[in-house]
Design goal:
- Helices cover about 40% and strands about 15% of the residues.
- The protein is of the alpha/beta class.
- Strands 1-2-3-4-5-6-7-8 form an 8-stranded parallel beta sheet.
Length: about 350
């Protein structure tokens, strides 16, 4: 497959990522736009005429910008366990989104259609009742794996737990796993690599798609994955912040790899991400929040400390502006891509 250095030295032409492009179906199958897995909770507060204080005018602007499409979308990467723990929420995702607080309710688009919940903390896997309750909702699916910053927790017991939780009927992928060499990561590189390689082997054994976390470690991720992962394997390269040239490199070797963009794209300083958003083939794009992280630009952090899965719409809106492409088209492609990777 070639070394990372050799790939990076080659200046790719746009034609490389056009090979194998899927055309958008004439008609995308749409489910009910409103996320309503539990009929008994149909008493949703009226969100069409919110009572806004003067200092909440940003909500009206947010709604006018992000509540225009009826095309359903799925947040392809969020952490419900982290979100619920920080908000001290006990209950369903539906009850959280519709009843937790006014800001969450007012920033939830009607076309939000579910999420992929990523469980990457092995300590939480032991709380079986909690994660099973989250996955019991119709439009919530799961992915399990040991995050690289938790690589010190990888051992025989953790491997046995992982193999067990992966057999749950709502699990659709293994991850997020990978390498993180960013500042503040105090886990030794060799320990990260060992946990990464062993989990790759399990994903291949279980024939599960991969959710990859690769931060400041592209060369090592590339070298490991090109040696171990079958070319046709389905891969979600989560929270992609590298250059478009690096994206092309991945696409050229793994035709079923797709990249996830987060609300980071809404910030003017995210130049790399803007360039990727403009140029990435739409059949390679996934929308994600990485909730509770990445609060979108325009949402005041003094009022909102955590993002929620419905905020993936901000990614679609920004990509739409950057490309000059209707948001409905962005959402249709992203939905098909999510269905393809996760089999939902």
């Amino acid at each position: 497959m070639g070394s990372y250095s050799a790939k990076m030295s080659n200046l790719y032409s746009p034609e490389i990522v056009q090979r194998g492009r899927r055309s958008l179906p004439d008609r995308v199958e749409l489910s009910k736009p409103r996320y309503r897995p539990h009929a008994e909770l149909e008493t949703t507060p009226n969100r069409t005429s919110p009572h806004l204080r003067n200092n909440d005018r940003w909500i009206a602007l947010y709604r006018s910008k992000h509540m225009l499409s009826k095309v359903p979308f799925i947040d392809s990467h969020c952490h419900l366990d982290f979100l619920f723990t920080r908000k001290r929420h006990r209950g369903s995702l539906f009850s959280y989104l519709h009843h937790s607080d006014a800001v969450t309710t007012h920033t939830l688009p009607d076309n939000f259609a579910g999420c992929i919940a990523v469980f990457c903390d092995p300590a939480f896997w032991k709380q079986e009742r909690s994660w099973k309750a989250m996955l019991s909702e119709d439009n919530v699916w799961g992915s399990f794996g040991v995050h690289p910053r938790s690589a010190e927790l990888w051992n025989k017991e953790t491997e046995a737990m992982l193999r067990s939780v992966l057999r749950h009927e709502k699990v659709r992928a293994l991850g997020e796993i990978g390498l993180d060499y960013s500042k503040g990561s105090d886990i030794f590189k060799e320990k990260q690599k060992a946990a990464f390689k062993q989990q790759l082997e399990i994903a291949i054994e279980f024939k599960l798609p991969l959710v990859i976390h690769c931060r400041d470690a592209t060369e090592d991720c590339w070298d490991i994955m090109t040696k171990m992962v079958p070319r046709e394997h389905k891969i979600h390269l989560h929270c992609f912040t590298e250059s478009f040239t690096v994206a092309q490199m991945w696409f050229s070797v793994f035709p079923n790899l797709k990249i996830g963009l987060t609300p980071l794209v809404t910030f003017p300083s995210a130049k790399n991400t803007h360039n990727v958003a403009r140029r990435v083939p739409l059949d390679k794009l996934l929308l994600e929040t990485d909730s509770p992280y990445f609060i979108p630009r325009g949402v005041p952090k003094d009022q909102v400390s955590l993002s929620h899965p419905g905020m993936a719409i901000t990614v679609a809106a920004e990509v739409s502006v950057l490309r000059g492409t209707p948001i409905d088209t962005i959402l249709e492609y992203a939905r098909e891509n999510t269905k393809f990777i996760y089999g939902i």
